[in-house]
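Quality-control log, excerpt.
Job 1 of 2 completed; input and output follow.
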Amino acid sequence: MDSVTQAALGAAVAGMIAGRNCSPKVLLAGAALGTLPDLDVLISYGDPVSDMVNHRGFSHSLLVLLPFSFLLSWIWQTVKPTRMGLPRLWLLVAACLITHPLLDAFTSYGTQLLWPLALPVAISSIFIIDPLYTVPLLVCLAASLMWRDKMAHLCRVGVAISSVYLIWSLVAYSLVSHRVETQLADTPLAERPVFITPTPFNTLLWRVVVHDGAYYWEGLTSLLDKNTEVDFIAKNRGHWPIEERSNYLQMIERFSAGFVKYEQRDNTLVVTDLRLGILDYMPFQFSLAQQDEAEEWLLTDPVQLPTPPVKPKHLPALWLRLLGNQDIDANLCHVSECPHPVTFASN
């Protein structure tokens, strides 16, 4: 999740655990602890692909944060003793640190909760920025600064409301997953890998991607749709034209669980993570090879390509699609023909 959300969650969790000892300083400390795991973005691993796959690594691991929280709380209590005592202080520090990666695990990016074990968790039920999760935390924190005698109670209220919304995101994900599973049953795509993720800033409109070998099927579905069938569009995944598979390519493929697209743009070979983004706005696109004058491919150091600016026409279209207007699906996607069309039928 974004830094504002993580800071708000850390502050609210700190206030909730501090109880009668809650104060503006405690909230500030909680906000700092809540954003601490994301300081790994300051670490450079030497190239953009490594930076991508190693983010949310050791600094988000429960196996690292638990002992670190005890060390940090012991130093805190030794240097500047608090009225809470070491056990409650440790609980506060640990909760602020650990709720950060736990919340990140609900997004589609993936979080290495058990680093160094290679077991990333990506539930993908909430977008990385969702005001409906963050605003209750911010409102309750602001209110707690106004009514300081109710600080801890208001922090509990904020965490409770946001947690209920997070639970709702799981329910919404389950509803969409069941909808897609039902539609794909008894079709050639029934056993294909499926990726489902919410579109930006909401949990009503969802993006569905079905991996189909040389092609992938993409569609949007809203919980407000009257017709629950997803209008899938087939798109070409391309292929890797070089016999040698670079380490960078393998890293991207592992990180994305195979949901990648290979594309030649002029004399550049681009690999895109299909899970993250929407429409043509894919943030993780990397140039991995160049053609020479003889049109031979040469592997190059990875370069992350910029995401194109959002087209103004897409914003109202996405809003209408969220509200259940299924007539605009074709306008939101670039249609490409598929040589083996599939008929989707609900049971």
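Job 2 of 2 completed; input and output follow.
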Amino acid sequence: MSSPLKNIAIVGASGSVGTFITKALISQGHHNVTAITRGHKPATPRNKSAQMPEGLHAIKEVDYDSHESLVEAMKGQDMLIITMNVMAPRDSQTKLIDAAIEAGIHWIMPNQYGGYFADDGSNEAGRTDMLRAGTMAIRRYIEGKGGNWIGVACGFWYEFSLSGQEYRYGFDFEKKSLTLFDDGKVKHTCSTWPQVGGAVAKLLALPVSGASPCLEDWKNKQVVFSSFALSQHDMLASVLRVTGDKESDWKITHEGTEERYERGQEMFKQGNIAGFGIFLYVSVFFPDGKGDLTALRENEKLGLPVEDLDEATKVAVQYVESGRSKEWGLS
């Protein structure tokens, strides 16, 4: 049996999900974690208050326009984890992959957190051809360079999505309004940020090879896990328990999944980025139920904890009340 990977480089260590992954890796004590960060990064609503987690082995500033800078930062690393904003320049990820492979890194966790995309198209939620194409292209790119990838099929991030605007889960906390997709009873799987961080950390604590479970079990595959399997009605019930509201305090309307998907597509085509969120989120609530990955999840194999839904909802409500959730709007 081999040992776990020791030296882990992560892009986005101070970002949303990256913070939780980085902290979980550091807390295990198995790894030297290095943050790869853009030098002289301009302040934005997303990073103005971001701080690097304590306990990092190193922080290396890079110039994305300099291949040599990226390669030098990744020398000596065993794995590269990429977490970045969906609106980052399209070539950012391939630049990182090229540098990682040249630096001798053979394990890469690309910027793919959320949906399940199998090569044969099985168990995929919604009509996400655009996302599938990009996801598959990056996987094949890594393989073509001689590297190995591991995707993270965790579903949507629960507290982030619930605290967001109506174009995500249909909740608008400021207006106390909720748009139910169809009847609001279709379940989907989702994960909290701590669960994502813990899952990645437990995965990388495994030996690379040997008796299962080992890292090679997920070589060029996705690791599938979740915190909850929820419908919009389940989420609303939790919100009411946490806030003390009554259902009558909320204005509830309905929109068909098909209608909402098409509306989001049209908005996006016309340049309204919120349309992307609308058609992306509603895709896991289609009546076919393919947004529920419970049958595929590997929580027990990874030794993940059972979480408390209301505690996670409290975090989402706190994000709303603090105004932090407004920093995560699509722009």
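Post-run check on job 2. The chain has eleven helices and 13 strands.
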